[in-house]
User: What shape does this take?
Amino acid sequence: MTERQDIGIKALLPRRIVTVMRMRTGASPSCRFFRLLLLGAISVLGAALLLSSFGGHSTLWGSDHQGRMFPSHSGDVHPMDSDSFRRTETNDLLDRLSQEDHSLSGSTGNRVASDTEEEKGRYPIGQGGFGATGLQANALLIEGLVPPDVHYLWCGSRWFEFKHYLGLMSVLRAISPDKIYFHFEQKIETDEVYYNQWLDDLKYDYPWIEMKQMDSQVVRYCATQDYDERVQVIVRLLNDDGGMFVGQNTWMLNFPARRRLVDLDFGLERYTTEGYIVMRRGLLSDESTSYRQLLQNTRRSDRYLRSTCAKIHHIYRRGDLDNVSTCAILSGHLYERFYPIDIWELEDPFGRLVRRIFYGTEEVRRPVPTYRELVPNIGHMIWIGGGAMDYLFYLSLLSMLFVAKVDAVYLHGDAEPAGDYWKEIKTMEQTKDRVRFIMRIPPHQIYQGDVQPFYRALMSDLIRVDLMIKYGGIYTDTDAIWVKPLTAEDRGYEAVASFDWVDWSWPFPDSVNFGISYGKRNAPFWRIFRDSMRVLHNDVHGFSGVMMPYKLLEKYPHLLRIDRRLQVICYHSKCHPIYAPDYHNMSKDHTNTNSIPNWRQDVNAFHWTHPNPTEYTNRSTLLAADGMFAEIGRNVLRAANLL
Assistant: This one.
């Protein structure tokens, strides 16, 4: 055994075994011979353990909007679990959590992947679920198969939605096609706020989608509603090179390669073109041959098949996703439009099926806290354009120091605030050594994309995500006030924010507000968030900062925790907690629903997006005022020993 082999084997062994081996280096020849035998046996055992560790924890991959890949693992958490987390903060609890975290560190199934794991390669589409996973080459490379080239036909100009995306994803997972031909009649529309980017995502992630404008023959499929004519167009299309047709509302499930050892497998639903067709090239002897003539062969040859796809109610009835049909047709008003959020925690056959297609796992994906390193206890604020510090800004900064109890606050901007309140912050004994102004010139480009000079909100979004990547910590807008600190449990999560209450971005089901947010340095979500800004869409206010993060959350629900009680957003002095039912309804607020019975415990912070409450005009108005907002402001002054 060479020295290099010896070192390689030792790398696989527990430290104690290697130590014992080193102690025995000077042994007799017989002992050395025994040592070599022992090394050989242990090397076989070590290799087996190494292989089992790869096989035992299958890593599931997903792509962000820009194609950067981050693996997830079964056992992760859904972002919307914050209410159920019991909050207590003691040193004993933190020690216990840290010990538990170390005990789990050897199993990738119980944690979010490490930084190096998060950066592995591209999305291996076609390798997760429905028969494609783990198949050897000899199970796929079979002589005489109809080529796995799949044709989609898309009529009209309309949105390509989530359910259509799942159809193509099911093909990629179940069939692992060589190519997908996407035949379109007209340009595929996208909604005004760019939610339905699903086809663009697929084109970015999967290299073999060919977009083909329909020619004069294929476009006849869209020009008629006659079933026979449409099917005839399909079989003539497949007759040229062979391949498959799949309907736009059809999901392919269990479809092993051997099912393509046929001349024809006709799996279309009667009276619609939902389902699929597998067809070998050249079956039509001439233009006059009809598909019905081909179907007559199903009675005479086992190379001509008639198949039927399941409906969703069949899957509910059976419930066993490992033995479902070769395909399923999505029909009925319940499935006309749905979103990833609808299946995040849906524990029924449909929820598990969609997660299996979308994420490659039936498991609910949730963020998992780790306690070896907590979110840094430092605060960040951003101030662009200069100007005087108003009283709400003053209270906001004080609340970070004395209510949220951060160690220090870093104010990032291109000019220090002006006015008496800032001078007070810089000179007061309890604040002067804990507040630092950090010069930061606002960005005017990111990834060579221009940021409009008037778009300060976007500039703030860009700076904030960069701060989280470089430093981590707790971010607060200048118009938000903390009323309760974070706990040790809270600070175990890698990235945390909350939904916005306002329903301003349909068809986005929701949007993410980072006005109060926190996270660990260089956490995967922050990197994905930054990389999504390669496309800014300056024409849509809030796209990069609040809408696109929601798209990322849909794909990576295990990387961002949505805490519904992190902040409550108030607009025109009416507060809309997102933990309340029907929180998008503008007519419902804290004044007519009693949704904030105890402001000291119900949330961590209050955020007044517009306008500033009159109670916070100055110290005199605050002390003279009554009501919840006045109590919140005076609570900050008491915590800072200023009242």
